[in-house]
Structures are given as C-alpha cells and as structure tokens.
Write a structure and sequence with these properties.
single chain; alpha/beta; Spore Coat Polysaccharide Biosynthesis Protein SpsA, Chain A; UDP N-Acetylglucosamine Acyltransferase, domain 1; 22-stranded parallel beta sheet; 7-stranded mixed beta sheet; 17% helix; binds uridine-diphosphate-N-acetylglucosamine; binds magnesium ion
Length: 472
C-alpha cells in the first residue's frame, strides 16, 4: 500500500550544547545546513510535502529553508511553529493541521543529517500504511537514548514501548537497542495517539515516543527496523559531534568518487562542500577543497592545496598547487589542456580557452582568454578580452576601474604585451601589436604597431658616482 508521504522535520530545539548564536539546524556539514541535508533526503523520497517544526530562531530557520529549496516548486515545504517547546510529541502536534489522514507521516529530526533515502524507504515499507515503524539501532553505549522495550528477551519479541533514558529502570537501561528518533506512522493513527499524550514523566515533556504504548494498547503492530550503520542516525549536538560527522560524510563522498575511478592522494585530506563531478582518470592531490558546483573533465589533475569553487575544468587541464578558483555566481571555465598555477587566482567570469597558461601570482577576473594565450607571472587581467596566442608580460595589469565604473580592455590575437605595462581601459590593442615594457597605454594601438609609452632612456657617458667623504 503506497500511501502519500508527509514528512515532519523537528527543528524547534535550542541546541544549547552548540554554544552558538546560530540555530543548531543551520550549522553546516559538507557546506550545507544540517536541515538542508534532511530536506534533500525528504525530496528524494518523493514526499508530498515536508513540514518543518520551528521554534528557536524560527524566523532565521524559515528564511534559510526558503533559500535552500530555491525554485524546487514540486516539493511543498511548510512550517509550523512550536512555541514554547514542550517535547517531541508536542512538536509533531503542531504539524497536525497540515497533515492529511490519507497519508503516512515520516518523522525526522533536523539535526540528523546523514540518513539515506533508501533506509527511509525501507522504513516506510515496514510501515506499509498500517503499522508503526521505528528506526532502531543497537549501541554499545546507549546512554541518553530512548530504549526499545520488547515483550521478551529475544530480539524478535514484540515491541511494547520506548522508554526514555531518564525514565528508565536499571533493567531497561541495560537494553542496547535504541530509538533513532525516526519513525513512520499512518497519519490517521498518529492524530488519534497524539491526542492522548501527557507529560507525566521525568522531563515533564510530551514525548512522541509514548505513542508506541498506545499502538500496543490499540492492537496496532509496531515494527522495529534495525540498521547497523550508526552515522545514519547520529545527531549533532555539539561542535565535536559536528566535526566527527563531517569526517564521516567526507570519507563517504571520497569513497564514492574513488569507486568511480577518481584517484585521491589521500581520502582523509579531501573536502567537498557542494557537488563535485569528475570524468575518467582525474587525479587530486592532498588538501584540496571543492565548493559549490565543480566539474573536472577527463584526465584533469589538481595539485596539492587548491581551493576550487563553482568552476568547470575541461579535459586535460592541470591545476598546479596552491591555486584559488572561485566562480561565485558567474562561474569560472578552464579550457582543455590549460595550465593554471601554482599560486594563481581565478575569479568570477574568468573564461580560459584551450591551452591557456596562467602562471604564479596571476589574477584573472571577468575576462576571456582565447586559445593559447599566456599570462605566466605576476599579472592582473580584469574585464579583458584576450585573443589567441597573446603573450601578457610579467607585472602587467589592466586598469579597469576609474573609481566609479569598470571598463574593458581588448587585446587582439597575437599581441605581445611587455613586462610592467598598465593598460588603462577602455583601450584596444590591435592584432599582432607589441607594447614595450613599462608602458602606460591610454590610447588604442593599431594592429601591427609597436607602442611605447614611458620616459625615454638617457645614458650619460663616463658617469662617476659620488664618493663618500672621509670623516676626520
Ligand atoms: C529523542 C527521543 C529518544 C531518541 C532520541 C534520538 C523523544 C521523547 N525521545 O530524544 O527516544 O532516542 O531522540 O536522538 O522523542 N524538538 C522540537 N521540539 C521540542 C523538543 C525537541 O522540535 O519540544 C526537536 C529537537 O530540535 C530535535 C528533535 O526534536 O531536532 C529531538 O529532540 P531532542 O531533545 O534531541 O530529543 P532527545 O531527548 O534526544
Ligand atoms: Mg537529541
């Protein structure tokens, strides 16, 4: 029975142990808010809607969610506020007006980021539109968690209740099987059971977990779907746990890439905060960080200590060590077989054609370099259009900003710009032209011309330097 799925994500808690002004669910893992991971997972289940329960920092959390989902219009994201926060049962009660009885409710926590969609699909399968299905795990140290209490000591014995650690007897505390905080429940039953909750317990809270008892009383089957992969249900409560899960996440990503054939020098020194797509035979050296959307074409090699964000690197390009690339919204494109770095900086709108060379301490912003153009040392190209085979000398810059507006520099094919030139935009250097080193160019230079704009050299013959006077 495949009923429509409504997801409820609990995210109203304070997250005191994060000791942060930022609401806990907005802390980032793999460059994405914890809550964003949970919403993504819900979207992969083809849920009809997701209701996020907000409380602490509600305005901030709701605004961040709107940014996370963007234009993903086929997935309804709604909010229900929980003020004050009186427990997980009370949290889900706030979503009830938005839930429909023809569906199954899947309860998730906004601070449990690594649950996989296939695990949740299996849990929904166990629920099958009629049972209460709990995601559980056996833990060596279950301290603090709700325990799965069964009718007998056998692992297959009927589930009778979940007992919170603080309410548990010594015998119950000896149970290793814990409730993950994730359940799937037919909504019509959930609605009925939530109406029966009370807060007569050690924490004076309305516990969602008490519905297990009601299911048993009503003769509804309760199934525990036990998994062994602990990170999938691990919550983030502190910076230490956040860092631990970050490593787990990164290692999983690295492993998936290596299984596709990507060669990572060291999967423990590799971070992706976004989406990295790699072609065949990509090699990535140690300590590289990829952010936003990055794609590396076939045979791309990335040297050690590079930061690459929002960029498309075509086949065969080599990014040498310590290069910083950030395309931000405009993106950066590196053409086939291009060589970039070491110590290069590519900024938004840098578009490098095939076999372009960008060397050490060269910055490129909002500029197009055609095939085979080279800027190998200590240079700046901003708002420039650079033709094929141009050679742009060491220390040369485009003066693209007059203090109020940006202007373009056009350097046509086969131009040779000497060292230490200033090209004051707007200006065009015609095809095949040469600009002498040290020139400040303020006027267009015709094709094929030599332009020199600097003080003329004077050499005085037989010059004798001043001599130091003797001190008496
Ligand atoms: C809960 C479970 C426990 C389980 C554990 C797994 C209950 C009563 N207990 O305990 O059985 O082993 O998770 O991690 O459900 N929240 C709200 N509003 C509230 C209270 C909590 O939105 O009033 C949210 C929190 O922000 C969090 C989630 O619900 O995302 C879980 O709350 P938390 O206080 O961490 O529950 P636990 O005591 O850990
Ligand atoms: Mg918790």
């Amino acid at each position: 029975m495949a009923l429509p799925i409504d997801v409820v994500i609990m995210a109203a808690g304070k997250g005191t142990r994060m000791k942060s002004a930022l609401p806990k669910v907005l802390h980032r893992l793999g460059g994405r808010a914890l809550l964003g991971h949970v919403i993504d997972c819900a979207a992969r289940l083809s849920a009809r809607q997701a209701v996020v329960i907000t409380g602490h920092g509600a305005t901030e959390v709701e605004a961040a969610c709107a940014r996370m989902t963007g234009d993903d219009a086929d997935f309804g994201l709604k909010f229900a506020r929980q003020m004050p926060q009186l427990g997980t049962g009370h949290a889900v009660q706030q979503a009830l007006p938005l839930l429909q009885d023809d569906g199954v409710t899947l309860v998730l926590s906004g601070d449990v980021p690594l649950t996989q969609a296939d695990t949740l699909a299996a849990l929904l399968g166990q629920c099958d539109g009629q049972r209460l299905a709990l995601l559980t795990l056996s833990m060596a140290d279950p301290t603090g968690y709700g325990r799965i209490v069964r009718a007998g000591s056998q692992a297959s014995a009927q589930v009778r209740a979940i007992v919170e650690h603080k309410d548990a007897s010594d015998d119950q505390r000896a149970i290793h099987e814990i409730y993950s905080g994730i359940m799937a429940v037919p909504t019509r039953l959930l609605r009925r059971w939530l109406a029966r909750l009370d807060n007569n317990n050690a924490q004076n809270e309305y516990y969602l977990t008490d519905i297990v008892k009601f299911a048993v009383e009503d003769g509804v089957a309760v199934v525990a779907h036990q998994i062994t992969d602990a990170p999938q249900v691990a919550g983030v409560n502190s910076p230490v746990q956040l860092a631990e899960l970050e490593r787990v996440y990164q290692l999983r990503l690295a492993t998936a890439l290596m299984e596709q054939g990507v060669r990572l020098a060291d999967p423990a020194r590799f971070d992706v905060r976004g989406e990295l797509v790699c072609g065949q035979d990509v090699e990535i050296d140690v300590n590289c960080l990829f952010e936003g959307k990055v794609s590396l074409g076939q045979g791309v090699r990335v040297g050690a200590n590079c930061v690459i964000a929002n960029a498309t690197i075509a086949a065969g390009a080599v990014i040498h060590p310590f290069t910083h690339i950030d395309g931000e919204k405009l993106g950066v494109q590196v053409g086939e077989g291009a060589l970039v770095g070491p110590f290069a900086r590519l900024r938004p709108g840098a578009v490098l054609g095939a076999e372009v060379h960008i060397g050490n301490f060269v910055e490129v912003k909002n500029s197009t370099l055609a095939k085979g153009a080279k800027a190998n040392h200590l240079a700046y190209l901003g708002d420039a259009t650079v033709g094929e085979r141009v050679n742009y000398g060491a220390g040369s810059i485009t003066a693209n900003y007059d203090g109020a507006n940006k202007h373009r520099t056009v350097i046509e094919a086969d131009v040779h710009i000497g060292s230490n030139c200033v090209l004051v935009a707007p200006v065009t250097i015609g095809a095949g032209g040469t600009v002498g080193g040290g020139s400040t160019i303020t006027k267009d230079a015709p094709a094929g011309s030599l332009s020199v704009a600097r003080g003329k050299q004077v050499s005085i013959a037989n010059w004798s330097r001043p001599v130091k006077k003797a001190v008496s």
